[in-house]
Amino acid sequence: MAYETEHKQLDPDTVAAGVEAAIADPGKARYFLAVREATVAGRETIASAAGTLMLTREWSDWRNGDWWWIQSVYVAPAHRRQGVFAALYRHVETLARNTPGVVGLRLYVERDNANAHRTYQALGMVDAGYAIYETEFGRTS
Q1: How many domains are contained in the chain?
Q2: HEC profile of the chain
Q3: CATH number at residue 111
Q4: Angstrom distance (rounded) from CA 105 to CA 49
Q5: Distance, CA of 107 to CA of 122 (rounded, Å)
Q6: Is 10 within a domain?
């Protein structure tokens, strides 16, 4: 996903450690996985991962509540434009609306990813008007 969207090669050990840390501590992040099932030769049902997203939280003193950030969005190429992300989004949106203290959903998107922009807009999301700046401090693994 990082290479496809940002042309970044990630260190597999760092990513594995990051995912393991998030799974071990739900306060860091939560993962959601969309699975597609298929019947093979009319007999055996197999499941394949179609897409995923990760949620993190950001406290907002302005709103006295949490923003849920959608991150690490990925839909496998064979499953794109088939509603996989929409299903993940709607599931997370329902959870957020039913969780006291959650004020909304946010995500960031690459400026030039027009397909993603259209997808998010079709789901009712709007451009929040912010640009993201960062200072990155090398690896922390």
Answers
A1: 1
A2: CHHHHHCCCCCHHHHHHHHHHHHHCCCCCEEEEEEEEEEECCCEEEEEEEEEEEEEEEEECCCCEEEEEEEEEEECHHHCCCCHHHHHHHHHHHHHHCCCCEEEEEECCCCCCHHHHHHHHHCCCCCCCCCCCCCCCCCCC
A3: 3.40.630.30
A4: 24
A5: 14
A6: yes
129 inside domain = no
Question: Residue 35 is part of which domain span?
Answer: 2-122
d(CA 93, CA 32): 12
Asked if residue 137 is part of any domain, the answer here is no
pLDDT in tens, 71-112: 999 999 999 999 999 999 999 999 999 999 999 999 999 898
Distance (Å, whole) CA 50 – CA 79: 6
> pLDDT class for 48, splitting at 50, 70, 90?
confident
Quick one: pLDDT band at residue 44, thresholds 50, 70, 90?
confident
Nearest to 70 by CA among 83, 57, 86: 57
Residue 116 covered by a domain: yes
- How far is the C-alpha of 84 from the C-alpha of 141, rounded, in Å? 32
